Each structure stands twice: as C-alpha cells, then as structure tokens.
Amino acid sequence: MSVGMETQTQPYRLGEYHSFSAAGTEFLYLVPSGSIFAVEGIAKLVIELLGSGEMSREALVAKLVELGCSREEVENTLQELTEVDALQCDLQEKEPLAVPVQEFPLQRIVLNTTNQCNLACTYCYEYSEDKIAQSAGKEKFMSKEIAEASVEMLIRESAHRPNLHVTFFGGETLLNFSVMRSTVEYAKRRGAEQGKKVEFSLTTNGTLLTEEIVDFLSEHRIGVTVSMDGDKELNDRQRVFHDGKGSYDVLVPKVKQLLKRHRTNSIGARVTLTAGVSDVRRIYRHLTEEVGFQAVGFAPATASPQRLYHIGGQKMDSILDQFSELAAEYRDYALQNRQHGFTNASDTLKELHTGISKAYACGAGLGMLGVGTEGNIGLCHRFVDSPIGKMGSIKEGGINKTVRREFLNTHHIGARYDCHTCWARPVCAGGCYHEAYINQGNTSAANLHHCDWIRGWNDVCLKVYGEIAIQNPEFLNRFAEN
Q1: SS3 of 122, please?
Q2: Which of 4-8, 73-77, 461-465 is predicted with the least confidence, judged by mean pLDDT?
Q3: Residues β-bridged to residue 396
Q4: How many angstroms from the chain centroid is the CA of residue 113?
Q5: Cα torsion angle, 318, 324, 327, 329, sign
Q6: Phi-psi category of 221—alpha, beta or left, where left has phi over 0 and alpha has psi -120 to 50?
Q7: d(CA 469, CA 147)
Q8: Cα 93 from chain centroid?
Q9: Which candidate among 217, 329, 436, 457 keeps its CA 20 to 30 Å from the CA of 443?
Q10: CATH says 108-402 is which class?
C-alpha cells in the first residue's frame, strides 16, 4: 500500500470510543458510529501505543514493525482502524453531526382513545400533580370520525413506507373498545387499498379485559402491553381503583386468560418503578413465574424530585445493580440459546447489534405522533392535549409542518450540547423529552440527572453483548431478524 509523505508525518491519535472487556477479549464501542470493534493482534498494539499520546504514521509503523509485525498487515490494520474512526488524523475530513431532518415520513400514530381511566394510580403522568395534559372541557372519548381521520393522516404522511403502526392508548384504552375495534377494521381496509400493511398494539391496565376483547386482539394480531407492578403487595401500593382498592385481584385472572387465549403477537408487562416499588428481581420473578409473562420491562416513574414516589440517586443505583443481575441472567440464557424475558436488556442489545446511532432520543415528533380525543396532535402520547409539544390538529389540516420542523431543529443531538462529549449518546441522544420537561421545564434539555445511570447500564449491556458475540454469536442474529 502506497502512502504519501504528508500522510506519513501526520500525527495519529485515538478516536472517540468506550473500551470494555468481555470473554477475555477487549472491545471498543466507537462513537458516534455506534459500532463495536474487537481489539486483537496489531489493532491492540496500536491502541496501546497511542494510549500514551499522538504518533506519526511513520513512527507508528516503524514501532510495530520493530515489534515483529509485517508492514503490510500494519498498513491494512491502520487503514481499517481509520475507516471505523478508531483512529483519527488531521488529514481526515471531520464529519459534522448529522443535520436535522426537514421532512420525515410518519410511521406510527398513538391514539389516546380516551382521557378517562377506571384506576387512580398515584404516579400516572396524565393525572398526577406533574401532568401537562389539559383535558378539562375536552371530549372524554375519541369519536370514530376522529380515529378514522387520524388513520388517513398516517397513510397520507407515510410517503413510501410500506409498514405502518397504530397504537391504542389512554387513559384506559378499553373504556373505548368500540372505537378501537372499528379503527382496526378501518385501518386494515384502507391500508390494503393503499398497498400498506398496518399493524396494531395496545397499552392497557388489563382490568377490563373480557373473553370477547381477548379474542378480538388475537384475531387481529394486536400486541399487548399490560401495566402491572408485581405481586399483590407491590402492585396495590400505587395501582388502585378510585375507591382506593387495589387492582391486583381483578387483574391477574384477566391477564392469565389473555396469555392463554392470545398467541398471535407479543404480550408483555410494563412495570413502573417508584420509591416504594423498586425490587426489580422480585417483580420480575413474580410476573414471569407466577403470572406467566414472557416479556417484562421496567421504567422509573416520571416525576419531579419533590414527589414522594420519585426515585432518588441511591435507589437508582440499587436498580442498576438489579438490572445488572438480570442482564447476567439474560446472558446465561443466550449462551444456551434460550430466550429471556428481560426486555430492557433485549431492547438495548438490539440497538447495539444494529449499530444504532440516534440523531433523536426517540421517534416522538419524527416518525411517531400522538392524537387526543378531539384530534389535537401531540409530540407523542405523553404530550397529547398539552400546549407543550403541540404539532397540529386533525380538524385543522393535520400536522403543522412549521412547528414540527422547528422541533426537529432544536431537539436534534447536534443541538443538545451537553451530550456532545458523552460516549453513550448513540443510544441515548439526551433522553426522553417528557422527562426533561418535568424535571427541567425544557423538552430540549438533556436528562443530566440520569447520565451516569445510562452510561452504567450501557456498559453492562456492552459486556453482555461482547460475551454473547464471542461465545454464541448465532444468538445475535435474532436481533437482525426483528
């Protein structure tokens, strides 16, 4: 390989990365590409040499040859490391942070089919003291007309996307099951007419499930997420009816019926962690072994620090320790080609495997929008019927493209300056907009209060990924298939 004199004298330095070890192998998680690179042989020597400071290519090659490496292999390795940005030199053109998108096809809508709920969970972001939705005076239930107009917006704004998704949300979604049922039938018909496949999902507290509803969900292959916080003692601390009675005894028989009769799509539990409900291992064991869920995911309640159920830093550290234990269990299952139900691990591993590098924290305002009962369009389901994150109205021409474009410009990772030196930004991109607003009063702010936790969790998952990649790499193929 011929290398010019100017290149030979240019100083080489290490790129931006996070190093970790797994299964006796050293890895680099490369930023901002999000790729994972095993460091062995000559590559390992290069990293070690540049760890002490910059070196010219000429000096670097000479030292490696002196150590017994062939010049050709050295040149090829340097080329490879440069191409993946593990090495940098002044001659390289620095790639700026990707510019914000100006137009983005819609892929998913979340229909808040009602703003009413038969439960009174104390931490609910829609009804708690931290709520931002202004549902007073608005229709309690979404009409068939608004739902169908929302589907039309999804199809119209989806451009050439062949696969679309409708999520049903609330309040408690099943309080408006009749509109959900008619919307599924309408969306499937209209999607077929436009050459698009429409899929569906539902979030519910599960207390209103009936045999008729379960059979409908199964027939139409609707994915279901059930909000449930563990065994009776833990679940009933926060998830109560309006009279204060716990929901567990009503919920469990209905969930077991759901799991027995609905086998055409995924059914998972979604656990909200609070100061009083944080025993992750206990909750996971109960929901998988006693109730029968095959997928369980956890998320802390979104709450300002003064709320009694807010999780402080010390308890978040305990949660990370418990997450780490379940992630290690996930790894052990994977090495035996068994599926584990801890979705926090599987979701992160999928992002790592596919090399995701996010320009935005999530799909909110990008490929996903929420719609309220009266047709108000929000950044996502958490911003529906709030003046914050309003993106237009079904009744007034649909998406306000100017507002949406401004959001995309100001919430892009390039505009979240606190994130620019963080190695975890490819999988975080600053975090949830709703969380940022509740804690900092600004949707574009980075969630700095969670940064150490996010880095810690991603380091755990990188090590799990590395061990699977070395010991049972075929297992990782399932992440590319979904």
Answers
A1: coil
A2: 4-8
A3: none
A4: 23
A5: negative
A6: left
A7: 45
A8: 31
A9: 457
A10: alpha beta
The pLDDT score that the predictor gives to residue 151 is 98
CA–centroid distance for 333 within its chain: 22
The answer to whether residue 96 scores a pLDDT higher than 70 is no
- DSSP letter, residue 93: P
> Does the pLDDT of residue 336 top 80, yes or no?
yes
**DSSP category for residue 476:** G
Task: Tell me the mean pLDDT in the region 118-139.
Answer: 83
CATH number of 5-89: 3.90.930
Residue located via tokens 């204060």: 244
Residue 237, H or E segment: helix 232-238
CA 94/CA 90 separation, integer angstroms: 9
Q: Do the domains 108-402 and 5-89 match in fold?
A: no
Rounded Cα distance, 291 and 341, in Å: 13
SS3 label, residue 298: strand
Question: What is the per-residue pLDDT across 212-243, written as a single tens digit (0 to 9) for each?
Answer: 999 999 999 999 999 999 999 999 999 999 99
Q: What pLDDT score does 8 carry?
A: 62
Q: Is the pTM of this model over 0.90?
A: yes
Q: Give the containing element (helix H, strand E) for 111.
A: strand 108-112
What residues contact residue 18 under an 8 Å CB cut-off, 6+ apart?
28, 29, 31, 423, 424, 459, 462
Name the residue ranges covered by the structural domains of the chain.
5-89, 108-402
